[in-house]
Amino acid sequence: MTTTLLWLRRDLRRRDHPALAAGAAGGSAVLPVYVIDPTEAAGTGQAKSAWLAATLRATAAAFDGQLCLRLGDPAQSLLTLARETGAVRVQVSAETEPDGRERDLRVAETLAAGGVAWAETGSPYAITPGRVRNLSGKGYRVFGAFERAWRALGWSEPAAEPERPSLVTAPSDPEALMALERWQAACPVALPPAGEAAARRAWDFFRADRLERYAEDRDRADLPATSQLSPYLALGVIHPRTLLADLAGRTDPGTAKFVSELAWREFYADVLWHRPESLSRDLVPTLAGMAFDEPDASFEAWREGRTGYPLVDAGMRQLQTEGWLPNRVRMVAASFLLKDLHLPWRQGARHFRDRLIDYDAASNTHNWQWVAGTGTDAAPYHRVFNPVNQSTAADPDGAYVRRQVPELAHLPGPAALRPWEHPEGYAQGYPTRILDHAAERSESLSRYRLAVGSTVPTASRQARP
Description:
Layout: E1 3-7, H1 18-24, E2 29-36, H2 38-42, H3 46-62, E3 68-71, H4 74-85, E4 89-92, H5 98-113, E5 117-120, H6 143-153, H7 174-185, H8 196-209, H9 214-217, H10 230-234, H11 240-246, H12 253-274, H13 297-304, H14 310-322, H15 327-340, H16 345-355, H17 361-372, H18 387-394, H19 399-404, H20 437-452
Parallel strand pairs: 1-2, 1-4, 2-3, 4-5
């Protein structure tokens, strides 16, 4: 019997796993392995590291305890493990992000030199980035056109799990096990339940209880309206193809909107596939001449949720305690950093990378560029989120703000959104506003005008729901 190493990365699950099925084909024994790369781990935030550790433990249980953990350079670690076990092949789900693609090329070359085959099957997406192309054979730059083509191309059915695959293992590195212990001990946030079974429970509950009203409620921060599946999707604990298969035949508005949000995730991954440099550079260089400020005390106030704008502060505090926040609140907090504090999007993207348990390079980067007006969105920089008006729509009774900001918990109803209007608004130590939004919006538009040399409309565009 031959042995195949199943190198797990962003596919920490057992169900709907094409690489697992391919690895077990022909009766090959499968040895699941996860390699902790010290270089990659050093650039991962504490919350995401802890989430990864919890997920790896759950993944090991799902594979009947047959998960081998190794610590070190992936190329040498896998080659060593193959020699230890006599494995003739390394099977993976294809990586699509720039660093991962570069790493995989290097690993495949090292393995080939050592006589070990390399095979890729499937990816973390319903449709692998690079496959959705326009009539000219190029990738899409506009979401609407991409979504239509994405839906028209379609996706395969979930992969069947091999019947009784022969799972084998090898000793894990003690240093790798100790790394998981350290990451979980240092976890700065309250993590959700980890693992494939937990992801499936969350999905089944959302589909039965919340999906019907998803289109109407998804922007409400005060309601448990979203699926909260993003941490599971980020590590491949559940595959988007599984979700899409469960929604087949449903045409209600909530389902249509949820599928559209999955398409946004795939769109950004596709953009990054075609434009890998956009991880650090503006996709659209229109604002190359924009004047930005240097981070100062106001940046720290934003990071810590002390700006004096309740919705912004509630979001940033939830990020500190949970490593997650609703999409609408992310957009409002991002706009505040960019348009009120006049800082570049990379500053905020790095902070979110360090704090989010659902960090995804493509989605995080391109959502920040969307708000900055330098990404895929057709609306330019002059769209500015008003943090007070947005709070009225996202948290009309102030319930979300009261949950996240204890200093405002005593204020009734919408008063929590405008403490400066209530006689007891600052009685519990909530900070006063660090800036005047109207003045900073005007400043942003002036800087935009100087950068592009054009007239800026006075009315800001409405943000994407």
